[in-house]
User: Fold this.
Amino acid sequence: MKFGPDILKQADVLATFSEDAPQVTRTYLSKEHKQAGEYLISLMRDAGMTAGFDALGNIVGRYEAGVPFAPVVMTGSHQDSVRNAGKYDGLFGILSPIACVRELHRQGKRLPYTLEIVGFGDEEGVRFPATLVGSRAMAGQFDLAWLDRTDANGVSMRQAIIDFGGDPDAWQSLDRRDGEHGEVVAFVESHIEQGPVLLNEGLAVGVVTAIAGATRMRLNVTGLAGHAGTVPMGARQDALTSAAEMILLVERYCTENAGLVGTVGKLTVKPGAINVIPQDVEFTIDVRSGTDSIRTAAVAAFKSELPRIAARRNVRLAIETLYDEPAALCDPALQKQFEVAIAAQGIAPRYLPSGAGHDAMVFPAVAPMAMLFMRCGNNGISHHPDETITAEDAETATQVLLHFFEHYQPPEFKADRAQRVDRAI
Assistant:
């Protein structure tokens, strides 16, 4: 194997750059973020790329084209993690294309486009209440208000960027829509599936059709506290039992409607005493679908049906939308090229959606986008220390990605230009 064992060894090294070893936790603009970035930059340079940190702490490596004024194909993923994470989420999408460039450089081969690999500093949003910070900046979607958001220690993102060695006022320079560093004609991301579909079907890789859109809501149910022993059941304004009925409605709706998933991930109860009827309950809803109309119908149903439960149970309900992101559709032509690359490895192409969000989802604003999924083991578990992949699957996925890079032709690419590139090599 050319790629698989080295990728796993590199992931092991990156896992040591953790804020709470032996667990894996690496948050945006931390000391461990810089250590991991410096290691990845060294891998990029050893592979034949120019590489360094940008103004917001992303790492950017470039493998220059074999022709002047060439367009750019971007690839990459995130180098930050959730708390107590696995080793491969995000990082595989950086290590795999670096391996591809190393092989191209070993052969002395240049492409008809510049290949740019980005290790985004923040995708998970663990340290600051903002997600996809690096990729959104590159897609022209950076929110200036993020710079004033603070972490648990009161450090603002602005100050953290300065302490990291970056420049918080240079975020506009990252916008890749302007073509300053070459026109971006495609963004592709390789990533572990973070689910069991490929594993259950015995397939090493698959082609992503869309990244699910998501809506996140916070709901507050207000009832009336009372003595657990003296208030008759029929006279209660119990916020918790009311919330429980609402939560079960969310589960039932998402179970009965195909193409939809819904999760209640947080629940707080006050006053939280064993002998007091709950008065205040806060819970969250995360609803996702690869089809926006299905997701928006679910949100509308919740906003209609949940207040009816509240009214019947004589409690008050407040609903706040925290996040609303449309689905990101993968480009059909790029999907087809991944299909061809997968078939070249003797594997039946499998198309599947992504329920998880990824950096790639912001790039349709810049250029056509596509994703390659790789199988992960342990029933597809991710965001967990038991997240695992095999060297064989890492090898296969990297071979697929290399095939894609070698055969991708930028728009309006001419055959006679390709001949000039070959002669230059």
In short: The radius of gyration is 24 Å. The chain has a mean pLDDT of 94.
